[in-house]
Records
---
Amino acid sequence: MIRDKALRFVQELKDQFGKKEMEAEKGLAVELFKLHALFFAMEDEKYGEKLANIVTREELKNRPGNVKEIIRSSYRMLESLEPSLSGVFLDDSFTNIGENSLYKLVVLLERYGLSRTEYQSDGAAAVFFETLIKELLASSKDYDFTPDGLARLMIRALKPTGGSVYDGTAGIANLLVEAHRYAKTEGKDLSVFGQEIHEELYGIGKLNLFVNRILPDRGDLKLGDTIRDPKWLEDGRLMQFDYILMNFPFGLRDWGYEFAVNDPYHRFDFYDLPSKSLGDYSFILHALASLKPEGKAALIVPFGTLVRGAAERKIRSMLIKDDVIESIVFLPNHLFSGTALPVALLLLNKRKPDHKKGKVQIINAEGDYERTRTQKYLTSKHVQKIVETLEAYENKEKYSRIVKIDEIAENNWDLNPTLYFIHVELDTEFGKIVFNKKKYENEAENLVHIGDIAEVIRGVNLPLRRETENGDGELFPVIQLRDIENGEIRFDSIDQFPVQTRDLQRVTARPGDILVSSRGTQKKIAVVPEYDGTILVSHMFIIIRIHSPEEISPEYVKRFLESPAGQYYFEAHQSGSIGTVLTPSDIRSVELPLLPVERQREMIRQLEEADEILRKACEIRKEKYLEAYQKIGIGPFIRPVSK
C-alpha cells in the first residue's frame, strides 16, 4: 500500500515538474528526500514539539514565497536536535534549489505523500523513502546501487544476527539498512557502521538510516575516503567488526597507492601493495583488516580480481594460503544497470570451521537469473538456491566444487570456475555443449602443448594518437581486429602506422602464421596466406608460428582453436575485468591432439565440406525469401548489394 502510494506520488511529481525541469534541477530528488525526512521528524515524539515551534506541515503549505527560509530554520533545528545529521540538510543542493521548486515539493509531499498516521506507523516512512530512491535515482548513470537480489544474497550468505556490521563504501547505506532489517526479523539487534566518499550519496545514506530509525542509536555513516582516511578508528587503529558487506567501486585508478605505500593502519603489510592502476584489492584488504578475528565478509568483486596476474595474483595466492577465502560464487553478467561486467560474491572468513580448512568452495551460478529486456536479476528462488549450496558445502555436478588449495596452486592461483569443473557448459554455434575437461586430458590421443610445437608471440604495440600525428617511425601496414572477418584477412583495408620496434621480423605476418585475437568478447582467428610485401601484426593478436608446418597444418590448429575444446581454453584463461585477455603464456599451455598430418587434412576437408553445405543452404534460403517478397509485391524495391 505504501509502495503504491509512493509510485503515485512519483507520477504526480513528474507531471508537475516535467522531464526537462527535473533534469535541469539536479538536486530536486535530493531535496525531496530531505523534506520527507523532515516531515518524518515532525511526526516523531522526539523532535516534533520543537519543530512545531517553528512551523507545522499545514502552516508550511500555506507559506508560498517564504518557504525556503522557514525550511532552513527547521533544518537547523533538526540538526541541533540530532547532531549526527549535522551538515546533511544545509548543503549546496539546498542553496541552489529555487524557492518556487521547493514550494512545489512541499505541496506535493503534503498532498500526495504520507499522512501523519502513516509517518508514525512502523516502517512506512522507510518504504516510501526506498521507493522514491529506486524510482528517481536507480536509472541514473550518476548513481550505482546494489541490486535488490544481490543485496539479499550478500546478507543471507552472512546471516548477520548480532554484533556489528560495516560497509566501507556504503553509498546510500542500503546494504546496512537491509542487514539491520534481517537481524530484526530474526529477533536480534545489530549495530551498523558505514563510510562513503561521495558527499551527495553520504547525505542520502544518512537520511536512509534516519527514516529507518537506525541513526543515531543503532548506527551511523561517516564521510571520507576509506583508503586514504578511514573514519572508524579505535585508539588510532582500524575499528574491527563482526561482519562486513561491501560492493566497492570496480577498477578504481586513483585509489590511494601513494598513501598505501606508508599506510599507518598496516592493511597492506602482509599482502603486498595492490596494483597501482587498479584499486580492487585495496578494498578487499581493507575489509580483511577491518574484520574481528572470528569475522566474516561478503564482497562483490569484478571477475578480473580472481584471475588477473602480477601483483593481484601474488595477493590472491597469499589470501588462499592464509585460508581466509571460504567461498566464491560466480554470478550472471548484466546484473548491474548499463554494464555487462561479470561479478562474483567473495566470502571471507577469518576463522573457518575445521571441515572448510584448506579448501575453497566455488559455485558457478552464472545461469541463475531472470531478465528484463536490458538487465538480469536474482529472484528469491535463485538466492535460496545459492544460500542452500553455501550451507551444504559439498560438491554438486556443474554447480559447486570444494577445491583443495593444492589444486588452486597447480592452476597458478587462478580462480576461474572453468578450471575447476570437470563438465563445463559452453555456448557454441551448435547451442550448449558439455565439455568434459578431465576425460579430454586423460583420454585424448597424443596431447601436446602449443608451446612445444610453435613459437608464440604478441604483436607490435601501436603508437598513441599524438605519436601517429608526429609521424615518428617508419610507416608499415598493421593488421588490426577489424581487418579480419569470417576467418579471413582483408588486405585491402589495412591501415599504415609509424612503428618503432627492435625486432621487425618477429612481428611481421608470415604465411602460415595463425593470428588469435587476444582480447574482447569476439574471438577472431585467421591463418596468414601468401602475400606480397611486409605487413605487421598488432598487439591485439597473438601470433602462433608453427615450427614444422609440413608436420602440423596451421589450418588444423586454427580449426582446433575454433572447436568447443579450443573454446574451453579461451574461457579458462579469461583474465580481464570484462572481456577475455589472452597472454602468450595462456596460448602456450593449450593442449591439442598431435595427429598424423593426413588425419589433420581429413578433418580440415570434412569441416570445409560442412561449411560449403551451410553456404549453399544460406544461398537457397536467400533466393526463397526474395521469391516470397516478389509474390507480395515488395520485390521490385529490394536489391541485394554486390560485394
---
Amino acid sequence: MATENTTPAASGDEQPEVDVRALTAVLDGEYAGIRDLVRSNLVTYASVLEDAEELGVDAFRERVRDVVVEMAATGQTGMGFPREYGGGGDVGASIAAFETLAFGDLSVLVKVGVQFGLFGGAILQLGTERHHETLLPDLVTGRLMGCFAMTETGHGSDVQSLGTLARYDAASQEFVITTGSEQARKDYIGNAARHAEQAVVFAQLEVGGKSEGVHAFVVPIRSGGEPAPGVRIEDDGRKMGLNGVDNGRLWFDGVRVPREALLNRFADVSPEGVYTSPIDNPDRRFFTMLGTLVQGRVCIGGAGVNAAKVALAIATKYAVRRRQFAGGSDGREQVLLDYGMHQRRLLPLLARTYALHFAQDVVRTRLHEVFSGTEDDAAARRRLESRAAGTKALGTWHATRVVQECREACGGAGYLAVNRFAALKADTDVFTTFEGDNHVLLQLVAKGLLTHHASEFEDLDQLGMVRHIAGLAFETVLEKTAVHTLLERVHDLLPGGDEWDREAGLRDPEYHLAMLRHREEHMLAGVARRLKRGIDRKGDPGVVFSQVQDHVIAVAHAHVERLVLEAFVDKVRTLPEGGNKVALGLLRDLFALSTIEADRAWFLEHGRLSAQRSKAISREVNELCRTIRPFAVDLVDAWGIPSEMLRAPDLVG
C-alpha cells in the first residue's frame, strides 16, 4: 500500500487488502479502453494546466481550441456519433470519455462539451439525414466549429418563453431569424465569441402568422472569420473560471436561412408553408425535443463527480504526508489523516464520491439503452430525463462542496494555483447551473414522482401538475407511494434497546435502504397532501405550488439519494468475495449512515430515530472512518487519475 499507516484498523473490523488495479477495472467497467485513451491524451496535453495560469485570455482560448481539435483526431470526442460520419457509434463510450476528461483542464472539457455534445448532439438528435450528411463529417473532426444558442439574457431554464423569432417566408422559402428585444439576445453561448462558424439557434417558429413553439435551426454566424450579415457578436469577457472557453452574445437582425435549416426530426415546414409534425400536442412535442438533449446533463453530472475525485485525491494524499502537532506519547507529530476530525472531513466525502460514481454508471447505461434503441419508448425516456436531472444536481453540488472542503483541508498550500484547487473552484462552480439550475432540475424530478410518470407527463406544466395531483384521491397517492408498508419495514429493521447492536442491523444495507425509502415516500405523500389541500381550499395553483416548493425540492433530493444508495448496494452485491468487496462495503455503509446522520433532524422529528440511536449512528460513522483510513490512499489511487493531472508537487509528492 502507498499509505503511511500509523492508525490500525478499528477493533473488530476486518482490514481489507485492496487490489488497486482490480478496483480500477471495476470503476472503469466496460469502457476501460476509452478511459485509458483519454488518460493518455490528458498526459500528452498536461501543459495546458500551466497554460491556463500563464497565458492571456486570447492566447489560452486558442490553445484550448488546438487541444480540442487534436484530441478529436484520436477519436475520443466522436465516440457518440455514427460510424458513417467518422464517429464511434457508442453513446455510452462518449459519456465515459467526457467524464474522464474532467480529470484535466476543465476549459478543454467544456469546449469539447459545447462542440461535440451540444452543437453536435443537437444536429444528430434533432436533425435528419440532410443535416447529418452535410455537417457531421466536418463537425466530428473539428474542421467545423459550432455553438448551441439556446439561453437568452431574459430566459434561462424557461426555454418555452424564448424571445428569438423564426418567421417562415413562403415566397423565398426561407426562415427569417430576429432577436425581438435585448432580453432575447442569446447569451453565455460557448464558442460564440471567437470560434463558432455555425450555431444551432432555438427560436419561436411562426408559420403563416401562427406560432408553433420553439424549434431549432442551423444558422451561419461567421463567414471568413467575420460575423455573417445580420449577425452581431459580442464577447462575454472574463468569467469566474473557464476562461479558455469563448462565451459570447448573439443578436440576429432579419438573418435569412433556407427552409432546410430547420432541424426537422420532429417537425417540418413544406415549401408552401404548411407545418407538420408527427407529434400533435405542442407541449409534448417541445418536451420530446428537449428530451433528446438529456446527454448534456448526464455528461455534466459525471464531470462534476470526477472533478471531485481530483480534489479528494490531492487532499487525501496530502493528509498522509503532512504532520502537525504531537499526537501521541512518543512526542512525534501526527499525520493529518490520523486525526478523527480530518477523517470526518474527507472520508464521508470519499464514500459519497464512490456512491455517485456508481449512480452515474446507472444513468449512463440508461442513456445508452435509450439512444441506441435498446429501450426507447416514452416511459423509458421520461425515467431517463428524471434520473439524469437528479444525478446531475447531486453530482455538481457534491463537486462544489468537495473542492471547498479539500482546499481547506490542505491549509494555505491549497491556495496555491499549482495545487489545482484555484482552478477547480473557479471552473466547477458553474456546473451547478450548467444544463439547468439544480433547483429547477429537482422540480423536474418531483414532477415525475408526483404524477407517477403519468401518460400526460409532457402536457403538464407547473400548474397542470398541481391540478393533476389535486384531482387524485389522497388514498391513490398513498397507494402509489406504499408508505404504509415502508413504515412497517423500517420498524422491523430497527434494533431494540437504546444501543445499536451491529448484528441487529446497523450495517445492514436493507436497513439503510428502508430508512431512505421511508423518508422519500413520507415526504412525497406529504407534499401531495399539501397540494391537494391547497386546491381544495380554492387556492391559486401558482400560489399553492410556491408555498410547498421547498417541500418539493426536499422530496426530489431524498428520491435521488435513495437511487444513489441503491446503485451502490447493487454494485457491491455483484462483486466477488475479497478485499475490494469488503472495502466497498465499508464505503457503502459510511455513505448510508453519514447520509442518515446529515438528516437526523428529519428522522428524529418523524419518529424513525431515537436520540440514543442517533448518537449511535454518529459513533458508527466515526468507527467506519477509522476503519477506512489505512487504505484511503488506495481508494483514491483506484480512480486512475494521472499524476500529471494532480500536479501539487508539495502536496502529493
